[in-house]
Amino acid sequence: MTNLFDDKLYPAACFAGRYHKRWGIEEAFKRLKHRLNLEHVTGLTQQAVARDVAAKIVCDNLQALVALTAHADADLPDSKRVNHAYAHTALKPLMPILLLGGIIGRKVKKLLRGVLDLIAGRTYQHRQNLPKPRSPGQKPHKAMSQKNC
Fold this sequence. Notes:
Layout: H1 12-35, H2 46-73, E1 80-82, H3 84-91, H4 95-100, H5 108-121, E2 123-125, H6 140-143
Helix pairs in contact: 2-3, 2-5
């Protein structure tokens, strides 16, 4: 959908290229939406939703830091990448312990070491500057003429 209704300034053929440029942004939002489970909140007020989103972003940032630490501690080559979705899953039950500490605080180091080892064990081969193989054929968004853009 668009609110760019002037077909002289914004011909329909230009939208395929513009949409393609937004693809990375759309994928980033999709990843955050699904990984952080943003559809589920604990309250219905604006304040509750804002608090939930902030907490989920903090957890996602902690997961990213732990994944980077797991990669570095395991001395993995640069061609191996940690599976961030698995890192999120592995960390989820530990978050209350990590954030609240308490009596269980003495076990945090041992638990975190185990999680780092688990995360570092879930890697995939990264091929730098090599695209993932795709099926050949004309892409629908490129079929439209992009002249006049």
